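Course assignment 3, question 2. Fill in each field.
Student: A.L.
Task: Predict the tertiary structure for the chain below.
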Amino acid sequence: MIVTMRSSLSDLTIERAKRREARIRQLEQERAEREAAIFQRIPRLAEIKALQAEIGLDLARLCLKRPTRFKMTFEELRDWSLRLAREREELLRQHGIDPRELEVHWDCPKCQDTGWIRDPDPGETAAPPRKCSCLIQEEIEDLYRVAGLTGPLREHTFDRFDLTVYPPECRKHMAGVRDYCRRFAEEVAEGRCRTSLLLQGAVGLGKTFLASAIGNHVIAARRPVLYFTLAEFVDLVRAEKLDGAEEARASAQWLLEADLVILDDLGAEKVTDFVAQELFNLINLRLNRQLPMVVSTNLRAAELEDTYGERIASRLLFGFEVLTLEGEDVRRVLRLRAEKR
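Answer field:
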């Protein structure tokens, strides 16, 4: 639901970092517990670990020309360390222990769960770290968590938009509508869109599919999207203004911060003057700030004005790019297809 959203993108980033830090601590603790159990069985392994740590310190001291503990040359220390490593391997083999049991079992070995990969750079200047694919996917999942695009809506993509469910005479037009929506989504994803989109058409023509396809494309580019129906918007307004709910106020902030806001299914249900005013404020604010928005409705122009008033209708019809969907009820077509199988 929309009221479970967080207040800002920075909050999501902080939450994500905290989750990763907690997970790293957990995995390191699990490794320490495995190691302690193995050392209890084979005390010599603990001795080897301690000796190798001291050898490492002595090697560093030699490089810094400082006094060492073992009074050995660099080569002698290195050879001793290699012998200890071989002894360790043999002890583990004899007891049937996988050496990986003494390592951290990272969820993502590429970045060791930090979310960042540092590539070795042969030059003098270290290459800047780059995001790991696991962090990119986590960012996308976080955006979905707050977006409201859940369940089947996440499966709606432009490639899955089936033109064959429309009458032959409507397919060329609907292909153009799909392609326009795709270009709109690409512009939002690239951060260069300054317009908004109104999807108009009768019930069951694919308005929700196209609206969520736009949202999914934008989220895939790791840009924040907010999707909600009119009923959810009414609940949000009531919770924020009347109940003073903190989470509702946080969600309302997302209406201003999201790169794309999608208001789906603006229907014929009458709304109070208070809700109409809040809806106008949202549409007007995003238009004035040139923040993209997608609104879908099955209402014609006159019906929009009768239901929501002249101010809202005017901004939707003349401030938005209007796309009209044509055809027959897709749900009915799909049901008939299923019955014939």
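Instructor remarks: Residues 9-41 form the longest helix (33 residues). The CA atoms of residues 287 and 319 lie 7 Å apart.
Grade: pending
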